[in-house]
Specification:
4 strands; four-stranded antiparallel sheet; single chain; globular; 128 residues; alpha+beta; 3 helices
Length: 128
Amino acid sequence: MDSDTAWDRYLEFEAALDNQGMELDFKPYFTEHAYADVEEASAEDLPYVKGMLAYPLYFDETYGHAEKGDVERRCLTVNGQTSRGDTGSLSIEFVQQNGLKMNDANMLFVDSLDELPGEAQCPEETRF
């Protein structure tokens, strides 16, 4: 869990999900703020909440990614096609808390590949 880049951390979480599925302990991958939804979820709601937070599983196919930031805060943008066939761009904020951890994210859906961002964006830059 000593990933140097946000993309490394994304791939690390993706591999852990592939290996353990929703039985995976999400806590090492999220800040306390982001993990609060998991902690507060009822047993009935937990599978849904974990599914919403399993961001590497959003895309069936990724078209590319870009990253920006510094040691304390990094933003990763991943473009791809969702399992529903939608084209989208996911912007994720990672912060340093004993390793890079996801703190915030925002998904944008677009009508064409031309509308996908070519550079990294932080989640707050994608909320209109």
